[in-house]
Amino acid sequence: MNTYQFQNQPRILRRPEVLKITGWSKSTLYNRIDSHHFITPIPLGQRSVGFVSTEVYAIVNAMIKCYSPQQIKELVQELTNQRNNSV
Description:
Structural class: mainly alpha
Helix content: 55-70%
Low-confidence stretches: none
Radius of gyration: 13 Å
CATH class: Mainly Alpha
CATH architecture: Orthogonal Bundle
Strand content: 5-15%
CATH topology: Multidrug-efflux Transporter Regulator, Chain: A, Domain 2
Largest sheet: 3 strands, antiparallel
Number of strands: 3
Strand order of the largest sheet: 1-3-2
Shape: globular
Mean pLDDT: 92
């Protein structure tokens, strides 16, 4: 696998990295998750979670494109459905 292919593969991001990417505080991140304006993390173990990089970047790109809050919510739902159907 070359470097380009590796970079396009999903990876797990821990919360500090997601906060750095978005520029949000921890409480803003969890408020957005609760309001379905950001994707929920996946369990990594008994006491740890992570975020799928491709899902995080899909939402960030939608925000850059000025999607409305409703459109963001629909995107989060679509990403959640894709995640659930891929298992």
